[in-house]
């Protein structure tokens, strides 16, 4: 066996040494913008995050409410993949549809009507989406739906025929084309949907019909013109059913995918990435992982990953290290993979962002992870504590808690995540079912954490993440100085404070 000379270390074993901060170095000047997917030297990544935060691909963390709340703050959630394809896609499309708030319309146009007719009707009805039927009535065959997204009055001549404006913008298989608007509306009500995607014979999306009472009036429909007002959302996939799951998620509007697995250095991931890239080229962005060393990173980079997740066995609910004796201290893993990412960029001119996944307990661990080279972070326990996580808030011995369980626990039964192609009956648990202290709304907590990150970055003289990575100086701390770092030799008045951290 090969023996590494250095022990593998965790975040709590390091501290940042402050650097010079100029008067420019104030939190308000700090940008936390970061790339989510790979890009070539000199080019911009096609997806960037305004904050380096993603929520874990877990049943107990990333549902619709989490996705909306985190996207609103500038991060992204990966909707958990340990559920049937249909329900995962429904979650994704509801997140995508929500903020745009398109309304369906019973105000019909014919395809030969023009943009000025559309504008007149839109003004009259206040609708941002208008159905186009064959004969202009709701019982006529539905020809398409024109949404505000297609409507660019300043750039489009007013006599443009409507049919030229009709473009699909998302997809989910529910209804075949050829139905009437009233049938579409009935179906929406019957199935309690917000929207009904209409597909052709080959299941390609033609357009969407939206629910009548869908409220677009809170947003100015004209602002919906640059996609920016739609929430961003990611989705987890696995190396088993990807040939069905990926097309469905793409069609539902997922912005980015990520293979959710405890072990990324595997041919299964290579096959999955290759298939996705063959089918979609660069159109579909997909992350892979998890790895903990240079070899794993290079393998996934060469296989086509758009980002690589780092971390095995460090998750708060994870017992992989205890169960199988594999894993690596998160700090050591991150430092090695970040170095490999930088070398790869130097040699190949392609920057592949890395994500530090799992094991972040204290807010300063976030800054450490970024300083050690992470482009963004994935957190489970942290987000599970908030109102927006999909789990129950329960009272345990007088304190409010939220439930939080691992994907490898018997509760989640996400065996695909750990699957090596063996006998399913011999699967064993690698995660636990637990409680975490309830912490209130995401926004307040996240803002506080981000403020701590920005403040520390200023102490290191860094105004953005890449500057932090270049300027940061880290020191390993002895066990005695770890004790010195907390409150010590005093009697704490409020012992609850330790829980709130
Ligand atoms: P944490 O933020 O709670 O410390 O860790 C969350 C991460 O733990 C997830 O993103 C995932 O990589 C990992 N995870 C999820 N379930 C398990 C498990 O059951 C697990 N073992 O290790």
Structure description:
- The chain is of the alpha/beta class and 501 residues long.
- It has two domains: 11-99 and 231-483 and 494-500, TIM Barrel, CATH 3.20.20.70; 102-218, CBS domain Like (Alpha-Beta Complex), CATH 3.90.1280.20.
- The chain has 15 helices and 22 strands.
- The chain has an eight-stranded parallel barrel with strand order 5-6-12-13-14-15-17-18, surrounded by seven helices. It has a three-stranded mixed β-sheet with strand order 9-10-11, with helices on one face. It has a three-stranded antiparallel β-sheet with strand order 19-20-21, with no helix packed on it.
- Helix 1 (64-73) packs across helix 2, helix 7 crosses helix 9 and helix 10 (363-371) crosses helix 12.
- The chain is globular and about 80 Å long.
- The two termini are 40 Å apart.
- 47% of the residues are buried.
- Residues 98-104, 167-173 and 212-225 have low confidence and may be disordered.
- The site of ligand MZP has 22 residues, from strand 18 and helix 11.
- Keywords: CBS domain, GMP biosynthesis, Metal-binding, NAD, Oxidoreductase, Potassium, Purine biosynthesis.
- NAD(+) binds at residues 260-262, 311-313.
- Belongs to the IMPDH/GMPR family.
- How would you sum up the major sheet? 8 strands, parallel, barrel
In CATH, the topology of the largest domain is named TIM Barrel
At CATH level 2, the architecture of the largest domain is: Alpha-Beta Barrel
User: What is the total domain count?
Assistant: 2
Which outline best applies? globular
| Bound ions, cofactors and other small molecules, one mention each | ligand MZP
For the secondary structure, the number of strands is 22
Which runs of at least 5 residues are low in confidence (pLDDT < 50)? 98-104, 167-173, 212-225
Strand content: 15-25%
Which superfamily, in CATH terms, is the homologous superfamily of the largest domain? Aldolase class I
Helix content: 25-40%
User: Reading side by side through the largest sheet, how are the strands ordered?
Assistant: 5-6-12-13-14-15-17-18
First-to-last CA distance = 40 Å
Number of helices: 15
**Rg result:** 25 Å
Binding site for NAD(+): 260-262, 311-313
Binding site for K(+): 313, 315, 318
Cofactor: K(+)
GO molecular function: IMP dehydrogenase activity; metal ion binding
């Amino acid at each position: 066996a090969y023996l590494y000379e250095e022990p593998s270390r965790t975040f709590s074993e390091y501290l940042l040494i402050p650097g010079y901060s100029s008067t420019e170095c104030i939190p308000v000047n700090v940008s936390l913008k970061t790339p989510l997917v790979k890009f070539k030297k000199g080019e911009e990544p096609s997806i960037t995050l305004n904050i380096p935060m993603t929520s874990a691909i877990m049943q107990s963390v990333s549902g619709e409410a989490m996705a909306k709340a985190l996207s609103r703050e500038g991060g992204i959630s990966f909707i958990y993949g340990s559920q049937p394809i249909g329900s995962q896609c429904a979650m994704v499309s509801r997140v995508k549809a929500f903020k745009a708030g398109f309304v369906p319309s019973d105000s019909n146009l014919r395809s030969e009507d023009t943009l000025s007719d559309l504008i007149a009707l839109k003004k009259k009805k206040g609708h941002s989406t208008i159905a186009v039927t064959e004969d202009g009535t709701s019982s006529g065959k539905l020809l398409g739906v024109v949404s505000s997204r297609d409507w660019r009055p300043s750039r489009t001549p007013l006599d443009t025929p409507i049919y030229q404006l009709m473009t699909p913008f998302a997809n989910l298989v529910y209804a075949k084309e050829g139905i009437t608007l009233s049938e579409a509306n009935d179906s929406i009500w019957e199935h309690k949907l917000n929207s009904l995607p209409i597909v052709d014979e080959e299941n390609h999306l033609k357009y969407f019909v939206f629910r009548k009472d869908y409220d677009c009036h809170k947003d100015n429909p004209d602002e919906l013109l640059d996609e920016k007002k739609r929430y961003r959302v990611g989705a987890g996939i696995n190396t088993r059913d990807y040939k069905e799951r990926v097309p469905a998620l793409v069609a539902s509007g997922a912005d980015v995918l990520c293979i959710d697995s405890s072990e990324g250095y595997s041919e299964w991931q290579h096959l999955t990435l290759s298939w996705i890239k063959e089918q979609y080229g660069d159109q579909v962005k997909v992350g892979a992982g998890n790895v903990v060393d240079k070899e794993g990173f290079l393998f996934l980079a060469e296989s086509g990953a758009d980002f690589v997740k780092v971390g095995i066995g460090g998750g708060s609910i994870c017992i992989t290290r205890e169960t199988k004796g594999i894993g690596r201290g998160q700090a050591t893993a991150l430092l090695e993979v970040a170095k490999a990412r930088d070398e790869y960029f130097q040699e190949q001119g392609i920057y592949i962002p890395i994500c530090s996944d799992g094991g972040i307990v204290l807010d300063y661990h976030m800054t450490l992870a970024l300083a050690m080279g992470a482009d963004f972070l994935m957190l489970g326990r942290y987000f599970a504590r908030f109102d927006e996580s999909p789990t129950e808030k329960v009272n345990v011995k007088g304190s409010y808690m939220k439930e939080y369980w691992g994907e490898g626990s018997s509760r989640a039964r996400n065996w695909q995540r750990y699957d090596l192609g063996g006998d399913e009956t011999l699967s064993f648990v690698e995660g636990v079912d637990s409680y975490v202290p309830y912490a209130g709304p995401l926004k307040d907590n996240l803002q506080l954490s981000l403020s701590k990150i920005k403040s520390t970055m200023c102490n290191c003289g860094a105004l953005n993440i890449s500057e932090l990575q270049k300027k940061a100086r880290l020191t390993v701390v002895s066990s005695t100085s770890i004790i010195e770092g907390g409150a010590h030799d005093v009697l704490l008045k409020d012992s609850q404070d330790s829980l709130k951290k």
